[in-house]
């Protein structure tokens, strides 16, 4: 028999609701300090123990009267709304629903100490007990938290939260598994959100470990008497996150439309992470992925950050997608009451006036970029690749009229296939050609016997020499036996059935395969000899490298007296990932002194001790570039773009596949091996024997990803399809049929 429907008792209902209201320790701290701000506090002190899950918040706000103290931790008990509330009324406080202390009290041991100016005594409200007067702070509380009794004529509140999640073991275990540095980062974000609107509030944050309190952050206390609004934003940002950007590299933004105003600052230089992008609407953080994606698209389309005054070698090695602006915008506008109820974190995901606010924010970004000298065309263009227009193919029968030495721009891409173009940096071409001097245009080989889709995005302006007359006899091929438009699927097994025919122009390997796309047909394909050898060498390098990593035998070089300055916001992350980087051959420690000189405020140093031999060869003495790459890997680990190697090292030392660990390898290692494979691979112009060509094809068939070179470009492409049931294919192994001298290579 099915269970009957019944009403849950009040205790169960409250516990279930509290789990939604209180998700982690930082969420709890945020709720309490926002209550302090609503109480007009000018000084807020926070002590937190992440290991034992307790915290204390002390403020000098208005305090809570003994009568009101009796309502604290009751559901929907609040001083910020009344029973005559109208949804059209404007709410200017962070909290108003009377849920935060209620939720905390149901999953922890909550004590509240408070005093108002009109009372000489301090009052205490212990968990589920009525308020009681205190002539002095109890000895056990005073010794544990180092409290100072509120003086006569003063006011304030002390919120003590102990044993968080004591009755929720799964939630408690989840919280204990969160790295401390992530909690500290989240706490910084919450503090900064308040300082954006209340820069005069002084915050003193301490961490407690085994009873020892360590200062973490001391920020705020800024007044408008000596600083303008935008300078207050910059100073608050620097105090919380460190000197990530010089003050002079910020630009003031101010825009107004009717009752909507946008003001703030945007950096003129870029950083490697988009975690420093903030938009606040009436004090609440906007978390719309859509608007931030459009904002970053505008910066991306302008090539923002490419002209930053940074070391050229660092800039060339920064991926373009890693250049983001620092963005701090304050929006003032009318909000619907329901905008304030979108989530329990008091964030706004999609404001009700988004149709107006969204374009206005983009207008502010566009105006900023124009003032920085970026073209209007670039700003309005889309950064995402557009779907190519419909291909207008030349008639296949016109192939017979093509001269193999002709000037018509050809292509070997099947129009029905999917493909992508990878970004090329100049140094890559050196592994393809024996190049010298600067390369103004990168070229890629092409075959002159297949038509090109008329697609302007592939057209490159270039002058060609007039073709010379040749006496070379080209066999007549019946067009009815050829098919250049048929889809062809090539698999790893197909490579094992491929037969080598000849080398083309010392750049390609012409091969054939029977019954690849259709029974009774023969397919001709071309293999890029450079891309082929590059892929083979890359997989060999990665396989050998992962063997040393998994066996903890990666070669390292000891180094001395190398100190890299890091910001305070990066300190905890570097400390947390110290063991992770050590497994990748990079040893360091975070210190607060440099050659015996104590640190400045908010400045720490990365003291390098060891570095892997291959990284040392790559970066040599450019340590700042190494630091940039380490920060990029930390950011990838933080956002789960990369996985931690600590969990798998030592688990498999035999019978493993290197490609199972590509999501663990830092990007700078992958780029390093890509470059090394490219430079050591067979180049265009190298003449190969038949044995060499067959060896390349055989080794390529053993690769895990044989169809792409190290940089993502195809290593093998279908050329044409031949119906060999009626007509024999000419002997293309004859050098007279493959002596093409005008092959070119274009990207």
TrEMBL record:
Keywords: DNA damage. Residues 500-688 form the MutL C-terminal dimerisation domain. One of its GO terms (cellular component) is nucleus. Residues 237-370 form the DNA mismatch repair protein S5 domain. Pfam families: HATPase_c_3. InterPro entries: DNA_mismatch_S5_2-like, HATPase_C_sf, MutL/Mlh/Pms-like, MutL_C, MutL_C_dimsub, MutL_C_sf, Ribosomal_Su5_D2-typ_SF, Ribsml_uS5_D2-typ_fold_subgr. One of its GO terms (molecular function) is ATP-dependent DNA damage sensor activity. It comes from the Eukaryota. SUPFAM superfamilies: ATPase domain of HSP90 chaperone/DNA topoisomerase II/histidine kinase, DNA mismatch repair protein MutL, Ribosomal protein S5 domain 2-like. GO terms for biological process: meiotic mismatch repair; reciprocal meiotic recombination. Gene3D superfamilies: 3.30.230.10, Histidine kinase-like ATPase, C-terminal domain (3.30.565.10), MutL, C-terminal domain, dimerisation subdomain (3.30.1540.20). The keyword DNA damage applies. This is MutL C-terminal dimerisation domain-containing protein. The gene is TBLA0D01300.
């Amino acid at each position: 028999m099915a269970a009957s429907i019944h009403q849950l008792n009040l205790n169960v209902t409250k516990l279930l609701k509290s789990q939604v209201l209180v998700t982690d320790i930082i969420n709890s701290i945020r709720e309490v300090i926002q209550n302090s701000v609503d109480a007009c506090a000018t000084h807020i002190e926070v002590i937190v123990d992440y290991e034992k899950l307790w915290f204390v918040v002390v403020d000098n706000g208005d305090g809570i009267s003994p009568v009101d103290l009796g309502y604290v931790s009751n559901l929907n008990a609040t001083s910020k709304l009344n029973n005559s509330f109208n949804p059209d009324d404007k709410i200017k406080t962070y909290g108003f629903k009377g849920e935060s202390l209620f939720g905390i009290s149901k999953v922890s041991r909550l004590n509240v100490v408070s005093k108002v100016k009109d009372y000489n005594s301090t009052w205490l409200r212990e968990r589920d007990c009525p308020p009681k007067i205190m002539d002095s702070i109890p000895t056990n509380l005073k010794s544990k938290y180092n409290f100072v009794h509120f003086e006569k004529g003063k006011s304030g509140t002390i919120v003590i939260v102990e044993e968080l999640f004591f009755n929720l073991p799964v939630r408690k275990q989840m919280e204990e598994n969160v790295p401390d540095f992530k909690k500290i980062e989240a706490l910084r974000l919450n503090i900064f959100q308040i300082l954006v609107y209340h820069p005069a509030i002084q915050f003193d944050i301490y961490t407690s470990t085994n009873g020892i309190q360590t200062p973490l952050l001391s920020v705020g206390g800024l007044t408008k008497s000596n600083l303008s609004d935008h300078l207050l934003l910059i100073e608050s940002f620097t105090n919380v996150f460190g000197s990530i950007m010089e003050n002079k590299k910020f630009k003031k933004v101010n825009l107004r439309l009717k009752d909507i105003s946008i003001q703030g600052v945007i950096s003129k230089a870029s950083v490697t992470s988009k975690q420093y992008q903030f938009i606040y609407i009436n004090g609440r953080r906007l978390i719309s992925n859509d608007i931030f994606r459009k904002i970053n698209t505008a910066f991306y389309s302008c090539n923002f950050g490419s002209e930053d005054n940074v070391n050229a070698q660092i800039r060339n090695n920064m991926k373009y997608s890693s250049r983001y602006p620092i963005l701090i915008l304050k929006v003032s506008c009318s909000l619907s009451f329901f905008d304030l109820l979108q989530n329990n974190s008091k964030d706004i995901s999609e404001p009700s006036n988004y149709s107006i606010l969204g374009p206005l924010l983009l207008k502010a970004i566009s105006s900023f970029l124009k003032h920085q000298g970026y073209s209007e065309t670039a700003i309005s263009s889309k950064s995402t690749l557009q779907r190519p227009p419909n291909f207008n193919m030349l008639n296949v029968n016109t192939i017979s009229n093509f001269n193999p030495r002709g000037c018509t721009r050809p292509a070997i891409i099947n129009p029905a296939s999917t493909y992508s173009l990878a970004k090329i940096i100049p140094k890559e071409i050196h592994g393809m050609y024996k190049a010298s001097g600067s390369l103004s245009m990168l070229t890629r080989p092409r075959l002159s016997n297949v038509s090109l889709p008329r697609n302007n995005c592939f057209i490159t302006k270039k002058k060609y020499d007039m073709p010379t007359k040749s006496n070379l006899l080209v066999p007549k091929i019946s067009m009815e036996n050829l098919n250049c438009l048929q889809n062809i699927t090539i698999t790893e097994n197909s490579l094992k059935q491929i037969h080598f025919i000849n080398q083309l122009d010392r750049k390609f390997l012409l091969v054939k395969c029977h019954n690849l796309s259709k029974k009774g047909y023969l397919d001709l394909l071309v293999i890029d000899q450079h891309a082929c050898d590059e892929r083979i060498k890359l997989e060999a390098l990665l396989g050998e490298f992962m063997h040393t990593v998994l066996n903890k035998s990666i070669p390292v070089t000891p180094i001395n007296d190398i100190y890299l300055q890091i910001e305070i916001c990066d300190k905890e992350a570097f400390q947390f990932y110290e063991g992770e980087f050590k497994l990748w051959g990079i040893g360091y420690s975070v210190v607060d002194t440099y050659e015996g000189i104590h640190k400045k405020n908010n400045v720490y140093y990365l003291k390098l001790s060891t570095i892997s031999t291959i990284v040392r060869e790559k970066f040599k003495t450019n340590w700042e570039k190494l630091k940039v790459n380490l920060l990029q890997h930390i950011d990838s680990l933080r956002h789960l773009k990369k996985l931690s190697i600590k969990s798998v090292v030592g688990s498999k030392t035999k019978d493993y596949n290197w490609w199972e660990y590509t999501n663990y390898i830092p990007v700078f290692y992958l780029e390093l091996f890509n470059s090394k494979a490219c430079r050591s691979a067979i180049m265009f112009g190298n003449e190969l024997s038949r044995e060499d060509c067959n060896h390349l094809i055989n080794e390529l068939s053993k690769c895990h990803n044989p169809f792409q070179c190290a940089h993502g470009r195809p290593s093998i492409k279908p050329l044409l399809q031949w119906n060999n049931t009626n007509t024999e294919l000419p002997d293309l192994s004859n050098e007279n049929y493959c002596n093409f001298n005008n092959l070119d290579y274009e990207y």
